Amino acid sequence: MNNIEIRQNDKDILDLLFLQRKMYDSSKMCWRLGWFIAITLVIVNIICQVLNLNSDIIIFIVAVMNLGIIIFESLANRNQNIGAITKGYIDNILFEMNNIYNEHTLNRIRELAIIYKDKYPKQYQVQINNTGKDDPPGIRDWYIVSHGGNKKSIIYECQKQNVWWNGKLSKLYLYILISTIVFFAVISLFVFSVLNISIRSAALMYFANFGIVVKALKDVISGYRYYSYYTKANEDIMMIDKTLDESIITNSQINILQDNINEIRKIQFLVPDFLHTLMSKKYHKLYCDCNLQVMK
């Protein structure tokens, strides 16, 4: 076994892996709550228009709900940023790269890792003992190392896993998200047409529900940015693969690829838990099977 394969299951790394998972889970929860409020806001606006309600109390409720959307968006961004820094810190340790974070930030990350481990002891034990192929998926054997090559080729294989895994899940979710938005946009236009609603009234209705419109657009834009960085990282991998000799991978290539991976992690484009749980074992098996084919 190589050093990365062993080191990734050391207690300090498992603590950090557990923290990043909790941070991303928390970010997803805030993201879901923001969507729940946005959808509820649409329902409230429809009821108010149907019943012709326009009191100060209604206006206040709508304002509070819009404020709630902003707060949960902010919390989601904050927690994802912590998760992204933690993932980057883990890679810095495992890959023995130059540290890109200041000591104050790292101390806070290490402190949070201890806090969350102590706060969720049962979840922690399940996560550190389960691998990605188990049910539920855990954090043990985070990277699947299929060969015992030199240090750079092993780091490169781990980086390829990051890009491959993120690309598979995010691409699937982006398709689902865009399809859902297009579906509801077509349905709303159909309803406006059937009910003979004027363009002005339709525009006012969209404006009244700007929370959900902004969230939908934000998710699509984030998805596009995410996919753009994923494409860049994938192009870096294709350039390295063309050499057909991983033994001549340079530090510069490794660092550029890692920079793109870190940028991907910071973008708030969160794959829902149900999709991650549904596809986790399938993608782990697919990746392992692909590696076995390459090794034959």
Provide an overview of this structure.
This protein has one domain (3-295). Helix content is 80%, strand content 0%. It has ten helices and no strands. It has helices at 3-7, 11-50, 56-95, 103-119, 121-129, 151-194, 199-208, 210-241, 251-266, 273-295. Helix 2 packs antiparallel against helix 3 (56-95) and helix 2 (11-50) crosses helix 4.
Q: How many beta-strand runs? A: 0
What is the CA-CA span between the terminal residues?
19 Å
Calculate Rg over CA atoms. Answer: 22 Å
- Stretches where pLDDT is under 50 for at least 5 consecutive residues are 292-296
Beta-strand portion reads: under 5%
Helix fraction bin = over 70%
Mean pLDDT metric? 80
Please tally the helical runs, counting DSSP H or I stretches of 4 or more residues.
Answer: 10
Largest sheet, in brief, is: none
The ordered H/E elements are HHHHHHHHHH
Spatial shape = elongated
* Overall SS class: mainly alpha
* Count of discrete domains: 1
Give a nutshell description of this structure.
This protein is mostly helical and 296 residues long. The chain has one domain. It is built from ten helices and no strands.
